[in-house]
Amino acid sequence: MYLQDNKLSELARKIQKEFVIIDAHSDLLFDVVRKRQMGRRKIIETDYLPSFIDGGINIIVASLYIDDEFLPEMALRRALQQISALYEEIDESFGKFVLCKNFQDIEQALMKNQLGILISFEGVEPLYNDLSLLNIFYELGVRILGLVWSRRNFSADGCHFNQIKIGTRGGLTDFGIKLIEKGNQLGMLVDVSHLNDKGFWDVIKFSKSTIIASHSNCRALASTMRNLTDQQIKAIAEKNGVIGINASNLLVADKPSDATLEYMVKHVKHIIDLVGAEHVGLGLDLCDSLISYLSPFTLKTMPFTPFDVLQGHKDLNKFIEAMLNIGLQETQIRQILGQNFLRVLKSLSPDS
Ligand SMILES: [Zn+2]
Question: How close is the Cα of 248 to the center of ligand 1, in Å?
Answer without folding.
Answer: 10
